[in-house]
Design brief:
The chain is of the alpha+beta class. It is built from four helices and seven strands. The protein has two domains: 76 residues, Pleckstrin-homology domain (PH domain)/Phosphotyrosine-binding domain (PTB) (PH-domain like); 50 residues.
Length: 145
């Protein structure tokens, strides 16, 4: 995608609404609501789905929450690479490039590295990055060029 070698590379572990924790919770909530809706309409098999959604949530959150949603325990995470032309997002199903013009600002805060864009920010779990300060420096250097 770009002829130069990347100046920094790291695995992208999302934070915020896009991470697996929120997706799992939303899916189980929808399952419970649909199951209760089925029961309200007279289909008693919906009770199975409502109970299943509640049990999955109850089982995952208290004991296994950290194991399931740990930033270091994700399979096949996308890789982010810093190039002169922009940030290359290498996902298992496709590779895209985000130009430096599209990124308004870059912040390294307590728990994440945030690359702010117009619509969708790129938020990376700071714990999953080996050297967050070096990555921030590589991004700032590439943006200045």
């Amino acid at each position: 995608m770009t002829p130069d070698e990347p100046t920094a590379t790291w695995s992208w572990h999302k934070t915020g609404f896009g991470n697996a924790e929120w997706v799992f919770t939303a899916a189980m909530a929808v399952l419970v609501i649909v199951g209760l809706g089925m029961v309200a309409l007279g289909n008693w098999s919906g009770l199975f789905w409502a109970v299943y959604g509640l049990l999955m949530t109850a089982w995952a959150w208290p004991t296994n929450h950290n194991r399931w949603f740990d930033s270091q325990n994700r399979w096949n995470p996308p890789e982010l690479r810093v190039h002169e032309a922009g940030l290359v997002v290498d996902k298992p199903f496709g590779t895209t490039i985000v130009s430096w013009d599209a990124i308004a600002s870059v912040e390294l805060i307590d728990d994440e590295l945030r690359l702010e864009r117009r619509w969708l920010d790129i938020r990376c779990d700071r714990d999953a990055i080996d050297d967050p300060k070096a990555v921030l420096e590589a991004i700032e250097t590439a943006r200045r060029r």
